[in-house]
Amino acid sequence: MTRRTVILTTNPGIEDIVAEEARARLGAEVVEIRAGHGRVIVDIDESSLYLVEYMRSIHRAKLLLARDKICGSKECLSKVYEVVASSGVEKYVTPYTSFAIRAERVGMHEYSSLDIARVAGDAVIDAVRRLYGLRPPVDLDYPAVAVSVDVINDEVYVSIELGGELSWHRRGYRIYDHPAALKPTLAYAMIAMSGIVDGETLMDPMCGGGTVAIEAAQLLEHSRIICMDRSRRHIAGARLNARAAMVENRIRFIVGDATRLSSYVDQVDVVVSNPPYGIRMGSPHEVRRVYREFLREAASVVRKSIVLITTEHRVVKRTLEEHGWRIVHERRVAHGNLYPYIIVAKPR
Ligand SMILES: C[S@@+](CC[C@H](N)C(=O)[O-])C[C@H]1O[C@@H](n2cnc3c(N)ncnc32)[C@H](O)[C@@H]1O
Q: Which spans are transmembrane here (predicted)?
């Protein structure tokens, strides 16, 4: 059995969820978790490589060809050439396969990502020419093979992008684009953190375009999923998205007010939700009122866990504790240009 090393990239803050999904779905051995950097390196059996495409928690996957130490001075650019030229890249790029270099640089270096791309490009061309006597075509827009060369602090990684270059968090079902949509990878992570078991009921009482509900319906075959929002327009959009994801009939859609949750449902097992962030809602007083009333209701209706992503973590924690719930986990994640908290609460 041939083992291959794969770099999985994700939203900073949910690397452990990626590692867990890779273990469960791919039988992967986790080599390294770069917490806060959105990178997880795993070893998997070559025959499981195709399964990477089914992962729900990652943005991209890259097949690692080589990894080495590198220094930050201009002279060390020659190291980029050496590592790329000896990486075996000519197995993937041939005179008949167009390629492009995608270079990324994190940390302090005397060279830019453009310098890296230029040197790495020369190294690929030379490696292919050595083997075939011909040079490969470069196509920066639509390459058949994208070769990634990332210099992260004092290390250089050479890899091949798997499954195309678009981030996998852009799910095909986003027909209706909610103005404050949650990244599906974060929705997946929150569902995983809720501890829900297939067959239990999940509700998102402020579901917007339906990301949490759709991810849940795709993940949990036997669960009842409820998607509620006070906006008729968003619920219509969520329904469209669910139809595109082919899970419309798995989800119950409600136009309703989360501050009166108990008038719509008697009991649900978990609530996973992305309520509006205060800075987008205007008056802080109004924000706190909506959160308090929603959480008072949620505390009485939810049986197992409440998982929220929010910038209003203080009011969430205080209110849930006042209603006899305990905060069992909290973490900060990157979401666009904001750093909200994911909070997991359980009844005492
Ligand atoms: C941040 S958005 C949710 C986005 C969603 N997670 C997605 O990916 O599309 C918050 C949603 O809460 C809804 N909302 C605000 N107050 C509400 C309330 N009292 N009851 C129900 N929904 C509410 C808004 O209409 C908005 O769609």
A: none
